[in-house]
């Protein structure tokens, strides 16, 4: 998508000129000319997405799978922790922890899991924010929203069973690992990911 932007810009300028010429020939108003420009630009951009197989919607597909799965696993862990499914499972959870969180049915009284969760989520947000060179007003608002959510998740994680907080932390840590890995120039070359303008030889 990033590599397509210069081509889209060039084609948009050419289209603007062609619409302007055609508009003068047919006596179009500015509103009609703008309509034809936007309509044809959408068609051209869609064709480019199909050609390079990179429609923006594809980037969101994983989210539509990941969010319901995250919610379902969280609810399942809560039910197991409070004994809503089986008292034997709850007993196993109460003795199945490790290190400082030996009881997975109780909240983490040390706040290590919740604070770690908040820090990892904030790191993910900052990694995304650092990748953007030109940031729109909406992107700024979205970034600040996710920063606030990351902080709010700390007290929330401190009130739920440790099993849930541990799952949330593990999930976020995997997300952070993926983000860091995908910034590695060596890994990107290995996976034949095209080089973009925002790529850095020293991403870390």
UniProtKB/TrEMBL annotation:
Q: Which GO terms describe its cellular component?
A: mitochondrial inner membrane
The family database entries (CDD domains) matched by this protein are listed as: 5TM_Oxa1-like
What membrane topology is annotated for this entry? Multi-pass membrane protein
Keyword check for Membrane, yes or no.
Answer: yes
Q: Name one Pfam family in it.
A: 60KD_IMP
Q: Which family does it belong to?
A: Belongs to the OXA1/ALB3/YidC family.
Protein name per Swiss-Prot or TrEMBL:
Mitochondrial inner membrane protein COX18
> What is the organism field in this record?
Antrostomus carolinensis (Chuck-will's-widow)
